[in-house]
Amino acid sequence: MSVLSPVASIGRATLSLLASLGRIAIFAVQVVGHIFRPPFYPREFLSALMQIGWFSLPVVGMTALFTGGALALQIYAGGARYGAEAAVPSITAIGMVRELGPVLGGLMVAARVTSSIAAEIGTMKVTEQIDALVTLSTNPLKYLAVPRVVAAVLVMPILVAVGDSIGIAGGWLVGVNQLGFNSAAYLQNTVNFLEFWDVASGLVKGAAFGFIIALMGVFHGMNSGRGAQGVGAATKSAVVAASVLILAANFLLTRVFFTS
Length: 260
Hints:
The protein contains 9 helices and no strands. It is mainly alpha-helical. α1 crosses α6, α4 packs parallel to α8 and α6 crosses α7.
């Protein structure tokens, strides 16, 4: 019996994981199914746009700026071994728009927004505000989930585009001021190297990450336990789940977009 105990533990963990994924999938289908059905809540939607988009700009911008600068330094140091220093502008640009811009932007917004949504909705559940919505004949899914999910899907590509631009600017600043590149030549190489699908793929990733970010916050908030400890656990689980799903979705989308 003791020999099979580890196997049984792995089996229970696997079944628990599959059950959680099933609940998330069902919840996601329910949210998507309510997007185009009235009633609509424009005030909640606009509030979510501000919270997810506008107030996330500083952290996304700072992250992208330092990431672009560090990426340029790393590419220059690596390229110098093979006499390929001239590739710094093009590789920095493609690295930002394809991968680092969407992924790091998504992770930073997840850390800020997913935790906030989960804590807010978890507190509403603990204080029975969600039950009050039901009493007032208001569907909590439409009132709490749909505006946040739609806002995140719409605003994340904009944040990714801003982050890409700032990240490329960070690489340009480092390249011109520290690595000796000509400013006009650096920018021209960046523009000439990037293709439409390089940029578009990052924006599509941003929309997918926005869906994950808001969905995980709402799902874990609405399923949080009772009391402060339950809200804290839901917040932690929401951020971890969103981060892992963002990385997994990035891998899958990269395979779809860039694997022939």
